[in-house]
Specification:
Layout lengths: L1 H16 L3 E4 L6 E3 L1 E8 L4 E8 L5 E10 L13 E9 L7 E3 L4 E3 L4 E8 L4 E5 L6 E4 L3 E4 L1 E4 L6 E7 L1 E7 L12 H21 L1
Antiparallel strand pairs: 1-15, 2-10, 3-9, 3-12, 3-13, 4-7, 4-8, 4-15, 5-6, 5-9, 10-14, 11-12, 13-14
């Protein structure tokens, strides 16, 4: 019985780990340009970003996501300082509502600042006028999203201060994009309950 309970405990632990976390800013835009640069402060260990929500006008948009270790400040027009994570097309759900963008997984290193540059390729990304560059706009106790700048495409004009409109979805730890997807939490819970039932039945038989 103890052996089965250990298996169940492990499954429940995996279930908890499979849960994604998120942090959002706002979708109440009052301005827009091709994209945004802003800093994300990681207050915990490594996390893997698995997706984004964006604020886009109606239509199809080609989105590019770049990252840089440390702050974007001073590198607004220095393309060589940035790494392209990925680029793909997405159909907008409409202005001022979340449009999910399935970005290639990337890591925000623990206890550091990472700059993000998210831009549409010659279309408009909606954002909100800010109050102070570098001020914390969103904080969930694990990540902080700071006020940044708006950008023309590509690494072009800078507009400050601006608040990126969106959501960052992430999981704790470093997750390989080629690894087998984690089982759904509900399925793991059912499996755990089934194992408990099997263990109980065997105990009664003995």
């Amino acid at each position: 019985m103890k052996k089965w309970m250990g298996v169940v405990a492990s499954l429940l632990m995996v279930t908890g780990q499979a849960q994604a976390s998120l942090i959002s800013t706002t979708f109440a835009s009052n301005n827009g340009q091709a994209g945004n640069m802003f800093d994300v402060v990681n207050l915990i260990g490594d996390v893997t970003v698995t997706g984004l929500d964006l604020n886009l006008d109606n239509g199809t948009h080609t989105i590019e996501v770049y990252t840089k270790s440390g702050s974007y400040s001073g590198f607004e027009t220095t393309s060589g300082a940035w790494s392209l994570i990925g680029s793909s097309a997405v159909v907008s759900s409409g202005a001022n509502v979340a449009t999910f963008f399935d970005v290639a997984d990337f890591v925000l290193s623990g206890f550091t600042t990472t700059a993000l540059y998210i831009t549409a390729n010659n279309t408009v990304m909606n954002y909100t006028n800010g109050t102070s560059v570098g001020s914390v706009y969103a904080d969930n106790g694990e990540l902080q999203i700071l006020q940044g700048v708006g950008k023309g495409y590509l690494f072009d004009s800078t507009f400050s201060p601006r608040i990126w409109n969106g959501t960052i979805y992430y999981q704790q730890g470093t997750i390989s994009s080629e690894s087998t997807p984690a089982p759904a939490p509900a399925a793991l819970m059912l499996l755990a309950l089934g194992l408990v039932g099997i263990a109980s039945s065997r105990k009664r038989v003995n």
